[in-house]
Amino acid sequence: MVEEFRNALMALPKPRLADLFAENASRVDDLTVNLSGIRFDFSKTHLDAQALALLQQIAETQALADKREALFSGAVVNATEGRAAEHAAERGSGGADAVAQAKALQARMRGLIEVIEAGAFGEIAHILHIGIGGSALGPKLLVDALGRDGAAYDVKVVSNIDGAALAEAVRDMDPHKTLVAVASKTFTTTETLLNATSALQWLRDGGVEDPYGQVIALTAKPEKAVEWGIDESRILPFAESVGGRYSLWCSIGFPFAAALGWGAYEELLEGAAAMDRHFRNAPLRQNAPVLAAFADQFYAQGQGCETRAVFAYDERLRLLPAYLQQLEMESNGKSVTADGKPLGGHSAPVTWGGVGTDAQHAVFQLLHQGTHLIPVEFIASIAPGHDFDLAHHETLLVNCFAQGAALMQGKTSDDPARSYVGDRPSTTILLDDVTPATLGALIAFYEHRTFVNAVLMGINPFDQFGVELGKEIAKGIAENGAEGFDPSTSALIAAAGL
Description:
Elements: H1 3-11, H2 17-23, H3 27-30, E1 32-35, E2 38-41, H4 49-61, H5 64-73, H6 96-117, E3 126-130, H7 134-146, E4 154-158, H8 163-170, E5 178-183, H9 190-205, E6 215-219, H10 222-228, E7 235-237, H11 254-260, H12 262-281, H13 288-302, E8 307-313, H14 320-332, E9 350-355, H15 364-369, E10 376-381, H16 391-409, E11 426-431, H17 436-457, H18 468-480, H19 487-495
Parallel strand pairs: 3-4, 3-5, 5-6, 6-7, 8-9, 8-10, 10-11
Antiparallel strand pairs: 1-2, 2-11
Helix pairs in contact: 1-13, 7-11, 7-14, 11-12, 12-17, 13-17, 14-17
């Protein structure tokens, strides 16, 4: 973001939220977007006419409309790696060639699922999905949110290199009834391949004569999977232009499609496609991802907010904050612009969060009375995800709405320890229910919000070189031990006996 705009954001007046509501009787309608079974309410943010006008000017100066079209058309938007970013094409929103390639993959994926259902792999009761980062977070979120009832298979997702994670995942699995899905874009990821090798050994130890016969690969490098030992007929390749943290829409979503059924997978894709259409066509001031990014920039650049908190008031969405951490911080945690110049201001805020009402009794003290200004996002569902007494869900929703009201309203007291400053911003995202369609739309909303934030800041959200240095150093330690490192690191390596 150019310095003059950053300075202009910082110079904006910030009327109190209560005054903004008092001055505009239609504020809720003006700052609420309803689509795809989701209500996005931005009215408890400090966005007003002056802020929106400035942010729209920034969007126009940064050519948001052109860059949005480049994203959907399959143009090179990842300049550092010379690639398009074609995750939207996986759900039918993109260039014709990329969409056709995605349809071909879906046909192959559906065919493999039908072969599994027909018994070609024997009796399958479990799917062990092995990946890390985007190859694990997306499938884990989908299965946890939507696969609690009626899943065809018991699905476990393993990402951590700690052997305890793999041991826990396979504890109740029958090796003879387990299909192993190895998910890696490059099929060179150290953690994933070590976990996969150990899973093969677990199959052997369990008496499986041909362990490779129970393994499939989800990758953009099918030749690497073949080298590793997986038959070509059991490889589901996806495009190199689909980034890891955007990959649940392609074959990385295999465990969800297999366990919940192809119909649920298509609903997920269509929900995301509906959000694509909204993002692509709606005016900026009625565009949910754009309004969300406007609020993000108002607080990060204009108010110096370094974090953003996300709280899911629905147990089905408990993994969403972790998913968003990677999506937002790996995409926009940069210190240079797309053309390599110093960013000169804040990048993405730190995304963190948890599950309500648990978080209320853990971290909300700081949100209400701490010295940090932290924009808060509440996510809830009108329909419950259980058949227990409705008092559970009503109490959950009451708490969700009360927290947003309390952050804004505050409370004065003669006792300073019991005073709440109030005027603290929040956004509420209210789903009709947690379904494949609404979850697909919600995740696509966050993807596009991340993209808009990147455009406004002038950065490339589609590379992630920051994850490489630590991996290089880890490889050096594995090969050379303590040699050549700082005294602290060398002492730690020696203490661990490495």
